[in-house]
Amino acid sequence: MSAAAAPSKRSTATAPRQSANSTNGAQSSKKLRVIDGKRAKRLTPMAVVLACIGLGLMFAAMMVNIALIDGQGELDSLNQKIVDARADTESLQRRQSALETPDEVLRIAVADLGMVEAAKAANVPPTSAYVGPVATSSDSTESTDPADPPGSTDQPEDLDQ
Questions:
Q1: Tens digit of pLDDT per residue, the chain (161 long)?
Q2: Residue 19 exposure: Cα atoms within 13 Å on the Cβ side
Q3: Is the four-CA dihedral 47, 53, 58, 62 of positive or negative sign?
Q4: Nearest Cα to 151, choosing from 159, 161, 136, 127?
C-alpha cells in the first residue's frame, strides 16, 4: 500500500508542474527549474544561532531601558521629597523667627504659661564686711575679733572730747 501511494503522490506532484509549464509557458517568460534538496534548506544552524543572539541582545537592551525608566521614576520621587522638605524648612524657620520676638515671648509667657511680670527691684545699698584678722602688732588697743572693723575698740569713745 505504501508502494502504491508513493508513485501516485509523485505523479500528482509532477503532473501539475507539467501542466502549469505547458499552459503558462506561453504567457510567462520565466522558466521554472528544479532545485536540489541540499540547497533548499531554509535556515542554517548559524542563522538560528545569530537570530537567537540578536533576540537576546534586544531583550537585554529592553531590560536596561526598563531599569533606567524605573530608576528615573525613583529619582523624580526623591527630588519631589527634597523640594517638599525645603519648603517645610523655610516655613518652620519663618515660624521660629516670629516666635523669638520679645513681644511674642512675653505673650506666650503670660497667656500660655501663666507667668506675671516681676515687681521693680529695690536698690539696696552695699555694706562692707571684713573677713580675717585685722589687728596689727603695732596697735595693741585694737580688737583682734574679725567681726570688728579696723579702728574700732572695745572701749567706748568719748564724744565730748
A1: 444 444 444 444 444 555 444 555 455 578 888 776 665 566 688 888 999 999 999 999 999 999 999 999 999 999 999 999 999 999 999 999 999 999 999 999 999 999 988 888 888 888 887 777 766 666 555 555 555 555 555 555 555 55
A2: 6
A3: positive
A4: 136
Helices (H), the chain: 2-24, 45-99, 102-111
CA-to-CA distance for 145 and 122, rounded, in angstroms? 33
DSSP state of 31: -
Q: Which amino acid is at 45?
A: P
CA distance between the termini of the chain? 173
